[in-house]
Amino acid sequence: MDQRLAFVMHVKPGFEEEYQRRHAAIWPELKKLLSNSGVFDYSIFLDRKTSLLFAFQQVKGDQGSQNLGSDPIVQKWWAYMADIMETNPDNSPVTTNLEEVFHMD
């Protein structure tokens, strides 16, 4: 079953352009892992006034990108991004899951 997931994260102020640059050059192995794990239609939006990142993804199954933290590729990506984002002690981004309250096809 497909589902839509959304969450927010924070990029450190002043690092918005670097965040965008790194994602423009997303590693092919990470993109392949996401796709093979059922993640598709994945977008991240930035509110430049607050440095808030809004992420939306559709997934086949019940797990999204944030459930892949045990994979070495994801751990390497998290370490790569840790200097420009709010992170947890394991370098995973601090995220807040959002509840879907409306959807229109």
TrEMBL record:
Gene3D superfamilies assigned: 3.30.70.100
Top class in the EC scheme: isomerase
One CC-aspect GO term: cytoplasm
Gene source species: Sphaerochaeta pleomorpha (strain ATCC BAA-1885 / DSM 22778 / Grapes)
GO biological process, one term: rhamnose catabolic process
GO molecular-function terms, A-Z: L-rhamnose mutarotase activity
E.C. number(s) listed in UniProt: 5.1.3.32
Keyword line: Carbohydrate metabolism, Cytoplasm, Isomerase, Rhamnose metabolism
Annotated protein name in UniProt: L-rhamnose mutarotase
